[in-house]
Every structure is written in structure tokens, then in C-alpha cells.
Amino acid sequence: MQSQDVSQRHAPSPAGSAGPVDVEQAEAALVEHYPRLVRLAYLVLPPGLGRSRRVLTAHALVQRALPRGRKQPSVIPAQAAGREGDPGYAYLRERVLRTALETARPRKGLPRLIPPLLPQVWGLRLFPRSGGADELALDQRLSALSGPARAAYVLRGLEKLPDPDIRDLLDATGVTDPGGALASANSVPMQPGLLSSPEFDPCSLQARPTDLMRRRQHTKAALAAAAALAVCGALVALPGDGWGPDGAAAPSYAENPAAEAALDPGKVTRAALTAWRTSARTDFSVWPARGPLTGDKALLRRALAVWARPGDRVRVSATPGTQTGGPAGPPQLLYAGEVDAARVVILYDGLRIARYAEPGNGTQGAALDFARVDGATGAGASALVLGRSDGNVRYLTAPWVTKAAQRDLTKPDAAATPLVLADGVTAPLASPAVRTGGCTSWTVLQLTDASGTRLTTDLGELVPAHLTAGRPGAAGEASGAWGLRTWAPFACSLAAERSSGIRSVNAWAYAEQPLPDGSGSGAWVCTRAETWRGDGTAALAQFRTPGGAAGAVVAKATDVPACGPRDPHVLAGVLWKSAAGSWYLLAAGSEGTSSVSATGGVTASGQGRLLAAKAKQGARADLKGTLADGREISGLH
Questions:
Q1: pTM here?
Q2: Strand 403-408 versus strand 443-449 pairing type
Q3: Cα angle vertex 423, ends 420, 429, to 5°?
């Protein structure tokens, strides 16, 4: 159940003088406006207390705002009328602000800590519900303000008080420079709607247990939950979000020796620095651990804990077909270090690469990315994405890579530009995966080792895709002159394969076709993308006219063997308009196609693997081809 503040339906009355207030009147105001007073205290308290501590402290400050005992005078002074002209609310609001600001006020020596004597919750950590990106951004901006500036912002946005009344109220609570607090509050755009969101509601809470492993002798969780309900009477959604000792990880709920071993940073495996030199394997299992933070056990623990149980504020992504569960045992460490503005840890469990990243400035939040790499070897295990920022990407290369360079795939005759390699980490290069707008270039990573030179490209995932060129089953590296010329007009078609779990992409120039008007020959190329999971393969038939800067995709098929190693045949067609304005159906099959026929909107047939027939604009035709062995193939759709 969630508490509601019905006073929000009314505009506040102007502040003004008021007479004495009965204790009973103040008690009634506290009961009526309790959720709003707790929200006010929560927003003003210093964020450094942590969300759970702020919740309990906010409740404590409000509940202690009344005079203690009945031996006090029966009336208390009121500074100004508050909600709907209620002087009792105004008195409580000033008391809550004063104590909240005292908590936020820096002191010499030890920081001021006010443990909430009431309420007290054992065995649970309490948090408001998480909001969206706007609420998180506002919370971060408010955390950068001083306590008085936060109070000024909240009084202006939540209480709707004019600046003169805010200045008087801050002065009454002991703020030495109310004008400066108001000026500082102006630096944060006013968003009153966000201040009323569940993100800042300490009366609508979610609960999580503390460390269960240390509470074996404590009261059962049911009793702890009952104690938590006494705080606000409206706790929901077990379990919810929160930040525990493991950074962005959610709490652990079970004890399991294998799982505990997987979370022990001291048991993370590391390959020997020279294992790759003597091993017959060329996969991620022989990569040594690199990076300046490989000895930071606290960082490794956070990475392992988040992998095992990511919290609600962890952004998790995975390539299609990749599981995101925790490791079955201690994973292998591949990298730990600073990458741009983040601390990054890369781990490998034999089937998956997991990349953990947390902000380098100490703010809360984390990202966890997964990629499936089972069976990766050689070119498939030659590089990993360390991070992307400002339109660039950095890679961690395999230990056997001796040189790295970048080249524009659309310019086959341009030389590659060398990249600096520092402990296997490349200098940043442009990433086509994060580019927006038109495609005028396509930057790829060129890697050289003892076995040769190969090209890979960033398609928005942890593992770059390997580029090859040639007939399926006999394709070679795309880094040679012929491969570069094959890929150049069709490089931008790689954008269609972003974030699809692509392992490799092959370009095969399977036919050239003389154009009916004698203006030259058109080039037919089939590009096929293979995935790490096996299914989801995509074959694109592309056609380029003479002098055209880029080819055009004319047909696409998914999960078909055509244009692949299992069936190195392909047939596709396109409607083409000549310079004289005539329309033709052009079709071409791969080598070994003995005849091609068209039915439907165009009826034509011919011997050999090429077909050109007059057609009407917008005509649609079905293509059939016959191979030399009599087998029929269909055109890509």
C-alpha cells in the first residue's frame, strides 16, 4: 500500500505570521502531512548517508519534530502558516528542516551522524522505488548542491513557497547565507513533478535483506519484514532495488560452495603470460590477464558480484542467444583497468565474455555486457571491445597480435593508419557501430600476427566481426587487395547487421552481368553474416551498376543455406532502369547455374546463369534456377 499526500491537491497559502500552536494541533498536522514531511526530510538530507540510511533518518527526524513528553507547555510558537494555512504544519516543517540541515552541515573532526533512534529496522535494508533516467539525473544534480541549496530547491518545487518566504524560513533554521542558497538552487532546472515521484518517497518502500550469510542466528526474515512494515505501513515488492556492500549487485539469497567460489576474487583464474606461445589453442583461454587493476580485489569482487546478481541499476545487455546468468565456477580474468572514464573488468567462463564497467568518478551504477564466444579461435578470438566513447572504440587484442591499424573499408586503395598498441590495448578509432546519419565511410580494425593480416569491424557488440571475401567454403581474408576491392562498394551494408550476434561476414562477388543498353557490366555480390548461435544467419544479394559509388541490397534471406559453405549457390534479381528510360529484369546466378527463369510479373527464361528481360516499372517476378546437376534453386527474396 502506498501513502498518499492529499494536501498536494491544494496550492499552499502564503507564509505569514501566526500565533501559538497547541501540541495537539502539531500532532494532528504530523499525522495528516507525515508522508510529505518525510519526503521533505529525505530530499534535504545529505546523499552521502546512502538511500537506506536516509530513509530511516528522514522518518526519525519527522517523528522527533514534536516536543518530547507532556511536561512541556501546551502551546508552541508557530513561525508562519503552512499547508492550507496550518500553523502546526509550519512549525513541524521548520523543525524538520533545521534538524535535516544540521545533519547535512559539515563539522570539524568526525562527520555528524544522527542514528535514527526511532524507527529501527533489523535485518532489512529499505529503499524508495527506483525512478527513471530523469529522476536519477535530478538526484545526482541535487547531490552536488549544499544542504541549504537543496532545501531551497525543495521548498520552491515541493512546497511552492516564494523566494522571500524561503529566505525567511532558511534564516529561521540557522542558515547563514539564505540568498546564496537560493542562487545555488537556481543552477538546477525546476522539475516539481519529479520531486513528487516514487524515487523520492520514503513512505513507499522496497525492502531487501542484509547479508544473509551473517544472520544465521538472527530472527527469521518474516519478523524482520514485520518490523519494516512498522516504519511506514506501506512496504511492497520484496525484493526491490538497493546498493549493498558489493556496489551495484543485488543481495545474495543462498549459500552454495560453487557459487561462493565463483564470487571469490582470489580464485579468479589467470593464464600464464607465455601460455599462448606454447599452447596449441588460439582462443581466449590462453589470453593473459592484462591491465593496471588486475590486483584490485575490491574491483574484481564487485564485478563478480554484479555478474552473479545484477541489481536494478545495472544496465545488462547480451548478444542474441547469450545467457546472462552467473558463472558456474571461477572465471578467467582477461583485463582490469581504466578505460576512458570507467573502470572495466573483462572475464571469460569458457562460453561467454562478460564485460563489467563502473563509473570512474565513484557514482553508483554499472554496466554488464555479455557475448557468446563458444568455439572462438584464431580470428574469432583476436580482439575484444574494451569501451566506446565519443564515437570511438578501444580494443583489447590477443597476445599474439603484433600490429594494429585502422582503414576505411570504402577506400580500398588508401593505406591503413597504424594504431598504437599499449599492453594489447589499441588507441581509439572511429566506431561505425555508434555513428548516426549517412554512411560515407566504414572504419575497420586491421590486425597482424604471425599467420597474416585480417580485418574485423565493430558491430556494436563485445566481439568484433571477422571480415572475409571469396567463394563460400574457400573464402580468404578481406585484407588483401582483391578482398578490399570486393568489399569497398558494399561496406555500408554492414550496418544492417549491428547488434545481431554476428561472428563473421563474407563478401562473394559471384557474377558480372553486361547491361542491356551496352553501358557496361553490373556487379553481383552476396554478403553472408554468420552468428555465434548458429541461427539468424543473413544473406544479402547486392547489385552495383558501373560507376556507382555503392551497391544496393536487392534481396535478403535469413536462416537459409544459400550463399554459405553448406550451399555455395545463390540467385537474385533486380528491376533496372536504363539511361534511355527502359525497365529490365536482371537476374544472375552463381557459377554452376545452367538456366534461369522468371514467372509472375515477368515471364522469361534463358540458358546460362544470366537473364535480362524487358519489364514494366514495379513488376514483381519469381525466380527459379537450375544447377548443372539438375537441382533447382530459388531466388533470394
A1: 0.62
A2: antiparallel
A3: 35
